[in-house]
Design a protein that fits this description.
alpha+beta, Arc Repressor Mutant, subunit A, 4 helices, 64% helix, 3 strands, three-stranded antiparallel sheet
């Protein structure tokens, strides 16, 4: 593994760490899901870019639930397996709106520096 690849892997992990809650709330705002389903949906929608591991996903779900941003309930699947389904609470919807607005402001500011538009002379 080259230094450049290693640096990008670390950078990608840090970006995901800072975006996990926004991504989870975004997915759950469309429909309620259980943990494994959420991880697979995130991977599929991101074209394979995001791979949430259990050690990242479940602590984030528990934190979001503890903070009142999501609500969970148990259901039996067709196979008889118990699954905990999560959905966004009203408070979580408000937080998601604020997080997305902040993300847009942040990414626009980064792009103004990283990819400045050339002004004709």
């Amino acid at each position: 593994m080259t230094t450049t690849t290693y640096g990008l892997d670390v950078y990608r992990r840090e970006l995901l760490k800072g975006s996990t809650e926004t991504l989870i709330l975004s997915l759950l705002s469309g429909q309620e899901m259980y943990g494994y389903q959420l991880a697979k949906e995130m991977e599929q929608r991101s074209g394979g870019y995001f791979h949430l591991k259990e050690g990242t996903l479940y602590p984030a779900l528990h934190r979001l639930e503890r903070d009142g941003l999501i609500e969970g309930h148990w259901e039996l699947s067709e196979t008889g397996q118990s699954r905990r389904y999560y959905r966004v609470s009203a408070q979580g919807k408000h937080r998601l709106d604020a997080m997305v607005a902040e993300w847009n402001t942040f990414s626009e500011a980064v792009n103004r520096i990283a990819r400045p538009v050339a002004v004709p002379a």
